[in-house]
Model the fold of this input.
Amino acid sequence: MKNPLQTVSVIGLGYIGLPTAAVLAQAGKRVIGVDLQESTVTAVNSGTVPFVEEGLETVVAGAVARERLSAQTQTPPADAFIVSVPTPFKDDHLADLSYIDSAARAIAVQLRGGELIVLESTSPPGTTEHMAEVVLAERPDLTQDPMHRNSVYFAHAPERVLPGRIMIEMVDNDRIIGGTTPVASEMTRELYSSFCRGELLLTDARTAEMAKLTENAFRDVNIAFANELSIIADKLDIDVWELIELANHHPRVNILQPGPGVGGHCIAVDPWFIVSAEPESARLIATAREVNDSKPEVVLEKTLDVAERFKAPKIAALGIAFKANIDDLRESPSRQIVNRLADTVEDGTILVVEPNVDELPAELAGRPNVQLTELDAALDAADIVLLLVDHAPFKQVDQEQLRTKIIIDTKGLWR
Done:
């Protein structure tokens, strides 16, 4: 085995990178986080966190106090590098690997030989090999040959965590590890075993990449079935929530719950990476993506139909996060719906209630017809209550507050 990998640099201190850095530091590693956002670096170095995640701030504060964790904007030398940067898709749904390329080039400058570079960012099959090519193109003096003293090792280790439970699941969940060589896989297993209590499952890099995409595509297809049922049931004047509840009494049926669409940086994005890899074969996965991507438009049209009854409608839009009880707005269908409402209902007012954020995102902030509002005030003022996210406070709403309102409940929370 190569060096003991005591110093780790985590590139990208977002929703996955910062928790990864925190648990590694908690496990005794010396961790240097790297992020381009000065505000993120400042927050981490002061022992605070730039986003809401249960249990994260306590671990970060402790690691910083013990001088196990620090952050900076430049990539330092390290024994191991973990790349956790965004992998969005372009307009044609092809993956944008520019963030990975930039991280790889910054790492390449610091390499001496013997280092491990792990890609955690969810990405299409072949991306880890691509990252290795970028690094080695920058450093032709290095190699992937484990018999050579100037070898560098590459692996993929996708995260499999649920926002709101990241600090628990990052430690307890099984982890897939795929190296470009067997030695790289073993080195990555050694590193991740320092904090992961789940089973560490070794494979090759491409299979590891595809496994993460497969998990999220499976969930996306099943959500699409529920969302398509909700559209059909609405047109047939059937309560989709009762329909699913009855169908799920079959011992081999477990239909998921519909909603306003699918959001987040995983399920809403990852299946497209499979489609782009094999567009002619991934027909079911592509159709599921299209169903889920179209659901916000269905919700929007239903809301606009109701809004036409009012000269200047007041619409309480409850939730713009992509799922319950978090502040993550990435790829949020609810955010998309509210943005479209703001464009369309120019004579009305959109009262946004999002208990997990202190300010509206840039595209909504400053609009004269959009206000970030407290729950009770929004419910009192609204003509229409559009429930988009099942945040905990919304479950506690007094039904008497809704008695005179028009309700559009996309989550079945107030049945």
Remarks:
- The domain at 7-198 is CATH 3.40.50.720 (Rossmann fold).
